[in-house]
TrEMBL record:
Belongs to the aldo/keto reductase family. The keyword Magnesium does not apply. This is NADP-dependent oxidoreductase domain-containing protein. Substrate binds at H116. The record marks K83 as: Lowers pKa of active site Tyr. Residues 20-286 form the NADP-dependent oxidoreductase domain. It comes from the Eukaryota. Pfam families: Aldo_ket_red.
Length: 305
C-alpha cells in the first residue's frame, strides 16, 4: 500500500506517524504477535506500540528484525514505543528495566518510552506509592544516555500532568490514554494539546470491537443506523469511521489486530474526510464509558481515574 500517513510533531521536534499498530492481547498463540507485526509492516505501518507487560517484546522484535533483514525497512524508518511497567518505578530501576526491554527486542533505542501507569506496585501487585516524579528522573536519564529519543506518560490525569510539568526538566511528549467514540475525552485532549503534549488514543475502537458481557447494552454504536449510513457513504466500516474520527481530531491511534484483513482495514483511513456534521454524530456516541478502567489499581496512591 502506498498510503501517505500523516505525522504529528512532538514538543521536542521528533515526529510520529499518526497510526501505529497496537500489540496488546489477553491471549495469543505462539507466533501470533510476530505475524501481526510482519503484516503490519508489509501493510505500511511504521509505528509499533508495545510494553514490557505485554510479554511480546521478543516476537515483536523478531518481526522488526526480519523486515529490516528483508530490506523492507530500516530501523530509522520505524517508530517504536515501549513502556515501563508499574513494578519498576524506583528511579534506579528505570534504566535496567529499559535495557531489558531493548535487549528483548534487539534494539539500540526506542523512539518513545512511557511510564505505563502513574501507579507503582510490587511483584505481588501491592501499592508501593513511589512518586511518579521519582520515576520521571529515571526516564530523563534514559534520554541523556541516548537509549530513548522521547519520553512520555500513559493513563495520567490533568492534575498529575500539571504536577509532572512543574517538576520535569524534560517535558513529556505524549499522554497515551483511552479515547474512542464512546469515551471521547474532550477535556483531557484539550488540556494535553494546550500543554503541547500529544494525546494518543489507545483502545481506539472501544465498544465497536469489544464483546465482553459487561458491555452488552452499551454497544449500540455497533448497530446504530446513523453510523452505518456514514460508513456506507464512504465505503468504509464502522471501525474505520472511528479511527478517521480520532485522526481528524489530531489524535494518533494504535489499533490492534491479529487478522491480516483488519490490520489492512484499520490502516486504510486516509483517503476520505468526515464532515463537521459527521464528526458531531460520532461525538454523540459518547457515554463516558471506560473499557480500561485499571480497576486492579484503584486502591493505589497514584490511581488516576
Ligand atoms: N497504555 C495503556 O495502558 C494501554 C491500554 C490498552 C491498550 N493499549 C495499547 O493500545 C492498543 C489498542 O488497544 P486495544 O487492543 O485495547 O483495543 P482496540 O485496538 O481498540 O481493539 C482491539 C480489538 O478489536 C478487534 N479489532 C481490530 N480491528 C478491528 C476492526 N477493524 N473491526 C472490528 N474489530 C476489530 C481486535 O480483534 P482481532 O485481533 O481479532 O482483529 C481486538 O479484539 C493495544 O494493543 C496496546 O498496544 C495501551
Amino acid at each position: 500500500m502506498s498510503t501517505k500517513v500523516p505525522k504529528v510533531t512532538f514538543n521536542n521536534g521528533y515526529e510520529m506517524p499518526i497510526i501505529g499498530l497496537g500489540t496488546y492481547a489477553r491471549k495469543a498463540e505462539p507466533g501470533q504477535y510476530r505475524q501481526a507485526v510482519e503484516w503490519g509492516l508489509e501493510t505500511g505501518y511504521r509505528h509499533i506500540d508495545t510494553a514490557s507487560v505485554y510479554k511480546n517484546e521478543q516476537e515483536v522484535g523478531e518481526a522488526i528484525e526480519k523486515k529490516i533483514r528483508d530490506g523492507l525497512i530500516t530501523r530509522e524508518d520505524i517508530f517504536v514505543t515501549n513502556k515501563l511497567w508499574n513494578d519498576r518505578h524506583a528511579e534506579n530501576d528505570v534504566i535496567p528495566a529499559l535495557k531489558e526491554s531493548l535487549e528483548q527486542m534487539k534494539l539500540d533505542y526506542f523512539d518513545l518510552y512511557l511510564i505505563h501507569w502513574p501507579v507503582s506496585v510490587n511483584a505481588k501487585g501491592e501499592d508501593t506509592a513511589i512518586d511518579y516524579i521519582e520515576t520521571w528522573k529515571g526516564m530523563e536519564k534514559a534520554v541523556k544516555l541516548g537509549l530513548v529519543k522521547s519520553i512520555g506518560v500513559s493513563n495520567f490525569n490533568e492534575e498529575q500532568l500539571e504536577r509532572l510539568l512543574r517538576n520535569a526538566h524534560i517535558k513529556p511528549v505524549v499522554n497515551q490514554v483511552e479515547i474512542n467514540p464512546t469515551f471521547t475525552q474532550h477535556q483531557l485532549v484539550n488540556f494535553c494539546k494546550g500543554k503541547s503534549i500529544v494525546p494518543v488514543a489507545y483502545t481506539p475502537l472501544g465498544l465497536i470491537s469489544e464483546a465482553r458481557p459487561e458491555f452488552i447494552g452499551k454497544d449500540v454504536i455497533k448497530t446504530d443506523p446513523k453510523l452505518g449510513e456514514i460508513a456506507e457513504k464512504y465505503g468504509k466500516t464502522r471501525a474505520q469511521i472511528a479511527l478517521r474520527y480520532l485522526t481528524q481530531r489530531g489524535i494518533p491511534v494504535i489499533p490492534k489486530s491479529f487478522s491480516k484483513s483488519r490490520i489492512e482495514e484499520n490502516f486504510n483511513i486516509f483517503d476520505f474526510e468526515l464532515s463537521k456534521e459527521e464528526i458531531n454524530i460520532v461525538d454523540s456516541y459518547n457515554i463516558n464509558h471506560r473499557c480500561v478502567p485499571g480497576k486492579v489499581f484503584e486502591n493505589c496512591t497514584y490511581y488516576a481515574f
